[in-house]
Design brief:
Largest sheet: none
Strand content: under 5%
Number of strands: 0
Number of helices: 2
Order of helices and strands: HH
Structural class: mainly alpha
Distance between the termini: 40 Å
Shape: elongated
């Protein structure tokens, strides 16, 4: 059985905002990006669920 690719929010805009600690592209933190593969599906889904709020905060701050 072939392995399924790991779902990622990365949009290839990789720059972490110093104020929030969130990537301006995907909204993840550097530690989350670094351990993405090791997190497991549940951990990744937990991060995915927080991304809309993080992206909204970056937009409110005029960073995105």
């Amino acid at each position: 059985m072939p392995l399924e690719p790991i779902k990622s929010p990365c949009i290839k805009v990789c720059a972490v905002d110093g104020q929030t600690g969130f990537c301006l592209g995907c909204g993840r933190t550097l530690p989350e990006i670094g351990r993405w593969v090791q997190m497991g599906a549940e951990g990744r889904e937990a991060v995915f669920s927080s991304l809309p709020d993080r992206i909204a905060k970056l937009e409110q701050l005029g960073k995105r």
